[in-house]
Amino acid sequence: MLEEIGGSMFSENNQISGRQVFRLLTYDFLGMGTLLLPTMLADTAGRDGIFCILAGILSTFLYLKLLRYLLKGMKTSYPDFLKQKCGKVCGYVLWGGYFLYFILMASYTAYLFSTLMLNGLVENISFYLVLLLILLLAFYGMAGGIEGRARVYEMLFWFLMIPLFLMLFAACREVKPAYWSPVFVADGKEMLNGSYYVFFCYSMVSIVLFLKEYVADRKKCVGAAEKAVGFSGGVFAVLYLILLGLFGVDALAQMKFPAVTMMSRVQVTGGFLKRTDAFMFSIWFFTLYAMLNSMVFYSGNLAAKVIRDCGGYLEGKKRMLPYLILLLLVYGVTVLFYRNQQFLDCVTFLLWKIGTPFVVGVPVLLCLTGERKKHNKKVRVLVLVCFLFGCLFLQGCNVAELEDKAFPVLLNIRDQDDFQNVWLNHEYAGNKEVDYNHLKVVLIERSFLEKEAEVEDMLSMLEQEKEVPWNAYVMTTESCDRLAQTEGELDVLLGNYLEELLENTSGIDQKAYPTLGMLYEERANHLETLYIPFVDIEGEQSGAVQDDTEKEKQSATVWDDTGKEEEEQQPVMTGKPQITAYEVWKRGRAVGLVDTDTARAAFFTQNFADDYTLQLAPELYVKVDAASCRVKETEKIGVGGLTEQIVAVTVTGEGEILSGTVSASENPANAEAENTETNITNTSYEKMTREKEQLLNTRMEDYLNAAATHALEKEIDITNSYRNLGADNRTWYFKYQNTPAAYEKDIKIQYLVEINWKSE
For residue 85, how far is the Cα from the chain centroid? Predict the structure, then answer.
């Protein structure tokens, strides 16, 4: 029979197409796989998890070949085929096994669905209410039958996939390829466990046997499943590489839902919305909803066949009775999951270790031996869309209106007690509820930042607070209160001013500045050297900063107009906050301040600087554009025949002289040049010769080498080469893997500058 809906014609024969099978299975695979698989792979196989994904996909394709063979011999539905092949009693036992598996999987999916909503979106709302709403929506989906659900998923497919691809593309710019190495480190057992996890996510491919009776062209059933495996496998691989490159293997292994967290790491310059991860929930809502519907549908299919064999017949509204009973059963089991963690762990073990081998093994053993209610399609789509947006904006039973909320863009943390009091009281601003979803900057007093244990507790608390954006910048200062006094002199809020201070810094990529997410990740990875901006009022400098930067001032050469060395002049007082230094954050703790010149040299070396301006001699200022710094670890024989570990940095790009003159003898950093009579005078008006280029490159090498050497004296590697050892030097990686503190003591940094200088 055909039903005309809105001018379109849809067959009502309880049959679906091969394309709809592809999209149904894709939803089933992506739902749980993208949420749980990355963490499990990182915890078992680490960086070799990508090979586990490939192995799991290959195994699934081989398994589908077996299912294709089995389908050729099936003349009835799969449940009836089980009775024919195994006998009535054994057949019912197998039915019971499948029924139990579907119910437990549906309950686990519902628990995962509800937990995701509570952890990611809603507050002050009961778990039981959220679960009830989800199951009611699932019951409505059951009323449309498999054909109705297939139509909805078919229409929404690209509306969900395209945003997913765009989000993955946006996250790519934050990826650090060094986190992908080294590979081929996991042993055989770890690889097998990782491959099994991937195959588990594909174990639902066996439901093509149940789909046989609903597919119009049965020959396309397995083909559609193969396409779904290939498509979802590509998503798994890309997603895992992105997550691994974003968070690092150690941090990724500790995350609960890394795919959701991924978008919170993406910086949206100048945007008010900081919780970009909220857009990810729409994808997982529909995928988990699809899987929940599938599990309840197939279990209801078995229940209906049992009723049929007992002589019963359900028609009209009564046909929904089994689904209602099953959803009540799912509700009860899910509540047990929520109340009893041990029961959840036990069921999870059953699903992974017994359930998966069962649903996969039964078809293998077989090979070894051989009137619905009409629903308006548009109404169904409207209900699903309304549910999605209702979830996105749901804030609990007592929802606060926008005018009753405060949206701070700056969080000041002075000490441990201050932080706990502020947070535990949820920091009510007057009579308004504080919402931290749009937080832009976390400002931490330096005296507190240096307390490793207390900072660890602070980060743990912040990480658990779902409304705090991961991409909020982290800055430090001597006194939060002193900076707050300057807000009256600014045209914007202090938080907005500090964010603009970072994002509008000339020549520096915003990725150079640490965020909360970076600090979370470093708690586990201990790979990065981060530079937290120290903010002070321009024209002032606290005693603590003076103490920490004294060596920098002594080591730096500053010239006046006559070429004589003198003390660096203080800038004119303006009363506005400025970045005056950087707190170095290394291996999960603060290790001291460095001056802005050292930090900029580090940003330049790590390719975070679009351009780099520096003073090489009195009145000689140069600018380097489109530079590229390549870091390579090597060894050479040093003084006394000892082997030196060299971190060699090759600098290439285009340079120009902004102003000034230079004589080789005027640079005290280069002793050999004192005997050189070559001068560069009025360089901007002279033709640049090879000799002059070499002299400028030598000056720049001396400048960078001096900055790197001075930083190494404080055990700070401005090249950040430690994070790249896995990819660049496996020998050094395994040498310092367990003794990272010795790395900066053993290395020596040498720059080789090959800039092409241009003259006007």
Answer: 48
Those residues with Cβ within 8 angstroms of residue 3's Cβ, 6 or more apart along the chain or in another chain = 9, 10, 12, 374
Long-range contacts of 38-41 (CB under 8 A, 24+ apart): 38/239, 38/240, 38/243, 38/244, 38/252, 38/255, 38/258, 38/259, 39/252, 39/253, 39/254, 39/255, 39/256, 39/258, 40/194, 40/197, 41/194, 41/197, 41/198, 41/240
Contact 348, 40 (CB under 8 A): no
What pLDDT is attached to residue 431?
Answer: 56
Report yes or no: 644 and 635 within 8 Å, Cβ to Cβ. yes
* Residue 547 amino acid letter: D
Q: Kindly tell me the sign of the dihedral angle through the C-alpha atoms of 264, 267, 268, 273.
A: positive
For residue 360, the one-letter residue type is: V
Radius of gyration of the chain (CA): 32
- pLDDT tens string 79-105: 888 888 888 888 888 888 899 999 999
In degrees to the nearest 10, what's the CA dihedral of 343, 346, 352, 358?
-100
Which tokens in the block code for residue 385?
């869309």
- Placement of tokens 């190494």 in the chain: 712
Place of tokens 């990819």: 727
Torsion, Cα 19 359 77 2, to 10 degrees, reads: -30
**Dihedral class, residue 587 (left if φ above 0, else alpha if ψ from -120 to 50, else beta):** left
* pLDDT greater than 80 at residue 424: no
- Count of Cβ atoms closer than 10 Å to residue 172 Cβ: 14
The β-bridge relationship of strands 405-406 and 433-434 is parallel
For the domain made up of 610-760, give the CATH fold.
GMP Synthetase; Chain A, domain 3 (3.30.300)
- Which tens digits make up the pLDDT trace of 641-650? 677 899 999 9
Question: How many CB atoms within 10 Å of residue 368?
Answer: 8
Domain ranges of the chain: 17-393, 401-603, 610-760
- pLDDT tens per residue, range 671-700: 444 444 344 444 443 456 778 888 888 999
* The amino acid at 641: G
What's the CA gap between 65 and 81, in Å, rounded?
19
> What is the C-alpha to C-alpha distance for residues 621 and 626, in angstroms, rounded to an integer?
17
705-755 per-position pLDDT tens digit: 999 999 999 999 999 999 888 888 888 888 888 888 899 998 999 999 998
CA angle 322, 328, 333 (to 5 degrees): 125
Q: Which CATH number is 17-393 given?
A: 1.20.1740.10
Q: Show Cβ contacts of residue 141 under 8 Å, excluding neighbours closer than 6 positions.
A: 148, 149, 289, 293, 380
Q: Which residues of 391-426 are buried (b: 16+ CB within 10 A; e: fewer)?
A: beebeeeeeeeeeeeeebbbbbbbeeeebeeebeee
User: Collapsing DSSP states into helix, strand and coil, what is residue 586?
Assistant: strand
* Contact between residue 743 and residue 717 where contact means Cβ atoms under 8 Å apart: yes
530 closest CA partner among 545, 511, 548: 511
How is residue 55 annotated by DSSP?
A: H
Give the chain's end-to-end CA distance (angstroms, integer). Answer: 81
Q: Are 233 and 246 in contact (CB under 8 A)?
A: no
Give the predicted TM-score (pTM) of the model: 0.73
Which three-class secondary structure state does DSSP give residue 614?
A: strand
Give the C-alpha separation, 615 to 618, whole Å.
Answer: 7
Per residue, the 3-state secondary structure of 480-510, as one string, reads: HHHHHCCHHHCCCCHHHHHHHHHHCCCCECH
How many of the other CB atoms lie within 10 Å of CB of 302?
20
Tens of pLDDT, residue by residue over 388-417, are 444 443 333 444 444 556 778 888 888 877
